[in-house]
Amino acid sequence: MSKIIPSFLAMGAFIFGPSLSMASSTEPETARPAVLEYDDFASVATGLRKHCVEPMLIQLKGEVIVYGAICQEAIHITPSEEAWRDFRQTLDRIGVWKWQKKYVNPQIVDGSGWRFRIEYSDRRLDSSGINEYPGPDGSPAGSTEQGLTFVALRHALDKLLGKTIHKNNPDQL
To answer: Which class for 106: exposed (0-12), middle (13-18), buried (19 or more C-beta within 10 A)?
Structure first.
């Protein structure tokens, strides 16, 4: 029985570490990326401490995706090549490659944060946000509410895993 320890607990790396780069737009050699990481957490400020509430971590380890919440047993999934192809097509369609390195709303001291990191042979992205999300063109959405672009990413992750792990998924995007 394996437990996962979310990487977002290292907040310094979460806030200061992400980077974004793009390579050529040729078709990747495989539909499966070399790296896939997604952290999603809510925090509640209490005095000088922050406590994580319902964090979710998704990581690719070899050909297997390991995911779960901080206090729950990790679940292992091996998506099909078709599922990986659909996932990549969705990433391309929603324009994640335009996302900025960081999205931060400094006006809010508690709330939610996220990080999405993915690397293919032809493209890579490492983007994060605290109380802010990307808009359709990659610029900050200007809202603490998740817009359609970010919800589409969460829906794509749910489809890849074959299980709804995120709330508020649209039926179709």
So the answer is: exposed
Residue 103 and residue 33 in contact, taking contact as beta carbons nearer than 8 Å = no
Length of the chain: 173
Burial class (CB in 10 A: 0-12, 13-18, 19+), 130: buried
Going by C-alpha positions, the residue among 79, 1, 70, 71 that lies closest to residue 36 is: 79
Residue ranges in the chain modelled with pLDDT below 70: 1-30, 42-55, 70-71, 166-173
Contact 60, 74 (CB under 8 A): no
| pTM passes above 0.85 | no
Please give the pLDDT value at position 70. 66
Enumerate residues 6+ apart whose C-beta is below 8 A from 121.
23, 28, 29, 30, 34
d(CA 155, CA 163): 10
Separation between Cα atoms, residue 101 and residue 15, nearest integer Å: 10
Listed residue (32, 13, 18) closest to 121, CA to CA: 32
Can you state the angle between helices 148-161 and 81-94, rounded to 10 degrees? 180
**Residue type, position 165, single letter:** I
Q: Determine the pLDDT at residue 128.
A: 95
